[in-house]
Amino acid sequence: MVAEQFGTLAAIYGDRFDLGLGRAPGTDMGTAQALRRHMANGDTFPQDVQEIMAYLGNTADQYPVKEIPGKNSNIPVWILGSSLYGAQLAAYLGLPYAFASHFAPDYIEVALAVYREQFQPSESLHEPYAMIGINAWAAETDEEAQYISSSHKIAFSNIVTNNRGKTPRPVENIHERIAPNVMSQVSRMLAISACGGPDTLRHELGKLITRFAPDEVIITNMVHDPIKRMRSFEITANVLKSI
User: Per-residue confidence of the chain (243 residues) as pLDDT tens digits?
Assistant: First the structure.
């Protein structure tokens, strides 16, 4: 299914896609059960990755099931992770590695080090290539950026308190909205973040890029107003081009 879905995207839109593969079900356990997703008793993830790559390559004839489209699409495959497991697997298979530091930053430094030290060149990649996730809230001023970032922080506080829902509206004084003990957890989860007007954002993104030396960054945010969200991405893109 995955090979055919991404093969279809590639057939329609060309080389605009990468395929990121992660071991987790990708959602909370209740939703995962509703989607009939489960964690197998024996971890077959490494074999699953190699099987997907075979379906997308030119060696799929060995399989009785034919993926159409998909075969020979050679869509780039990434390993996604937030722990040492993904880093070690990406290194062993010689694949690019994307670390989920935008919400699970605890192991970012050690995972990147393990990936880079243990990397084995492959047909896909000759040297390690790492991406990190960064939360970035950008606006014309620092004050506006702090204001729009409150939606993201409240959303994460709702996750911590098991009160999930739609993206919250921003608030002026977030510390009056989130209890101190919850805010400490939110701050830890969102440690890899940058917030501010263009100059402040350039400084904060520059520090993160210097510290972790990623080959790419992937930017995310939960800004409530879609127009301000788009503007945040525009400012962030321009700042990144200048770094």
Answer: 889 999 999 999 998 989 999 987 766 777 777 776 665 555 789 999 999 998 898 765 677 777 788 888 889 999 999 999 999 999 999 999 999 999 999 999 999 999 999 999 999 899 999 999 999 999 999 999 999 999 999 999 999 998 888 999 999 999 999 999 999 999 999 999 999 999 999 999 999 999 999 999 999 999 999 999 999 999 999 999 999
Q: What is the dihedral of CA 88, 92, 96, 97, to 10 degrees?
A: -10
Tell me the whole-structure pTM to 2 decimals: 0.90
